[in-house]
Amino acid sequence: MAKRPETIALENWLFARLNPRGKGRVSAYGATEVTLSTDASANKLGKGRKKAGYQGRVDFISIDTQRTVRAYEIKVSIQDFRTQAMKSWVGHYNYLVTTDELVDKHRDEILAALPDGVGWLTPTQTVRRPKRHALQIDETWLVWLMMRRNAMVVRDSRLQD
């Protein structure tokens, strides 16, 4: 299924936030749609099946040079937010990322449903700041999962060219 333009715009905004100065040393690394698992076999999902060790998929995740992990769930509609799909709050800091329109129309509903300590961002505002949590996945394994996902994205883009 193709991504909605609003989702792509929010992913691009998150990538731009990683190194806001745009020059000098890279201070954070990110990946989109990372499948979280406790072992590599969980990444090979059959149609309609989830293997043992599968922990969901995070829309965007980053790790900085201080080894702080931030996980982001991107929601572009209220129906997307209301879905029963797993939300992967696995980072030291976890965020819901939405459009400003969702804040304007559904602020109270979303705030009531957000777990304690999960922040809420839009491209123009911080609606709620996150609280630090214990990391819910092994850090070294997470870096491997991120690298694997980014390699898959590069491979797919080369196949399309």
Key descriptive features of the protein:
4 helices; globular
**Main sheet: which strands, in order across?**
1-2-3-4-5-6
Q: State the total count of DSSP E strands.
A: 6
Mean pLDDT across every amino acid position: 85
The helix fraction, in percent, is: 25-40%
Number of helices: 4
What are the low-pLDDT stretches, counting only 5+ consecutive residues below 50? 45-49
> What would you call the structural class?
alpha/beta
Strand content: 15-25%
Order of SSEs, N→C? HEEEHEHEEH
Shape descriptor: globular
* Main β sheet profile: 6 strands, mixed
Our Rg estimate from Cα atoms comes to 16 Å
Topology:
Layout: H1 5-18, E1 28-37, E2 54-64, E3 69-74, H2 78-82, E4 93-97, H3 100-113, E5 119-121, E6 126-128, H4 139-160
Parallel strand pairs: 3-4, 4-5
Antiparallel strand pairs: 1-2, 2-3, 5-6
Describe this structure in words.
With 161 residues, the protein is of the alpha/beta class. The chain is built from four helices and six strands. The protein has helices at 5-18, 78-82, 100-113, 139-160; strands at 28-37, 54-64, 69-74, 93-97, 119-121, 126-128. The chain has a six-stranded mixed β-sheet, with helices on both faces. Mean pLDDT is 85; it is low at 45-49.
Summarize the structure.
The chain has helices spanning 5-18, 78-82, 100-113, 139-160; strands spanning 28-37, 54-64, 69-74, 93-97, 119-121, 126-128. It has 161 residues and is α/β, with parallel strands linked by helices.
